[in-house]
Fold this sequence. Notes:
By secondary structure, this protein is of the alpha/beta class. 28% of the residues lie in helices and 18% in strands. The protein is globular.
Amino acid sequence: MNAPNCSSAKYFIDFKIFSKPPVSSKKAFSMKPIIVIVGRPNVGKSTLFNRITRSRHAIVDDQPGVTRDRLFADATWDDIPFTVVDTGGFSTDLEDPFSPRIRVQVLQAIEEADVVVWVLDGKGGILPYDTEMAAILRSVPKPLICVANKIDGMGQEDHIYDFYQLGIEQILPVSAEHKYGFNDFMDALVAAFPKREEETLDASAA
């Protein structure tokens, strides 16, 4: 697949979109780091997925719960290829019959991931679902990139400070829709990737 026309040479994408995950998504994409995007409903996970992949494959809607099955797509930043996984909104809503299945899929995606991207609503503040997700992620021995989404400029960055009570060391202000802070987020993301085999060999030989 040819690279799309875009202003940044950092981008290249190759889509592998599934309404349902492969039998073993970890095995299917084992040659690339796997990045999973998690968070409660309606925080902008799908918008961030679309921004990273320069696509509109993930449905974006103000109505919570639109994304229910995982979506997979390949992308590259700074010549480093990886796979991005979008997940449904994590909740315990007893009125949503899909909620238990979504929770299982989110937890499975976290288990299979190399890096977890946790998206918070920078304008909506902390909700109980965020607190529950924080407790889960603190027990996961994997790199965590925490994003306060919907921060459209420096004047809104003070909205992120309340989120530090969740016990997260660093929170990146980002607007997935308007691209504010996006390049810094992407640089932090690829820096968190596990070392590739050739890099490990080079380090051993040095």
